[in-house]
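User: Second chain of the day. Same drill as before.
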Amino acid sequence: MIWLIGSLFLVLSIVIVIFVFKVSSQVNERLNQMNQSLQEANKIIGQNLGSATSAFGNVKEQLGRLQETNSQILQVSKNISNLQELLRAPKFRGQMGETQLENMLSQIFPKKDFYQMQYRFKSSDAVDAVIRIGERLVPIDAKFSLENFQKIQEAENDQEKNASRKKFLQDVKKRIDEIALKYILPAENTYDFALMYIPAENVYYETIIKEDTLSYCMSKKVIPVSPNTFYAYLQVICLGLKGLRVEENAKIILKNLNMLSIEINKFRGDFDLLGKHLSDASHKYDDSSKRLDRFSDKLTNIQDTKSLNSK
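Assistant: Same format as last time:
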């Protein structure tokens, strides 16, 4: 009896040992699989973190360059602000316009024989410049009104803007009347038209954007020009007057000038569209910046998780 019990106990012990060994083998196999999976996961995470770190470094570098560019823009804005303060003085504004006009004339014409600054008529009125084409003169006045134009830019609502624009255009028409009366003098050898040189592009576009103002200019035979359009107008004038008498070609010249003004208005539309695209790009930049912030938060969470696992 004792021998039988001993035998059973021995068999039971052997069975238990075999079972424990089998379970231990399965556990070790599972642990090895889990360890291999963890190693592969750590490798993938390490690669992703390396790529993310590199990308973040590039973004940081680009942001540094952007900050430097912003500093330069702020400096330019400061300089522009100082210039605007100077432009509030009508005398300085007039001198600036005359200087800019003289520089352009000196670049277009090889000799001063073709133009003259501060040309004085018999009435003692002096026009800022004249261009000699053939035996006659093209008067150019370089003064412009700025006060009401600045009020347009500073207006806080459409009502204020429209009121300031109305006053600005009234100033423009007064300037047109003055040029037509003082400087268009065929009896003193001028052509029967004159140029009104506006040295600021934004003021120029505000002047010609209304068709009735442009029509008023044409009726008075006073042609508004800007730094970007001055040379083109001179080309049209010279081509229209070359070898022909002004009286026979004045209508053709004014028609061509009117067509050129229409093209400039079309350019203004394209210019405004470009401004809209730039504004959309700015919004896209803001959205990308927000997405970058969210990505940085996720990256920080991953790094924190990795630190906890390593512990």
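The chain has eight helices and five strands.

User: Great, on to the next one.
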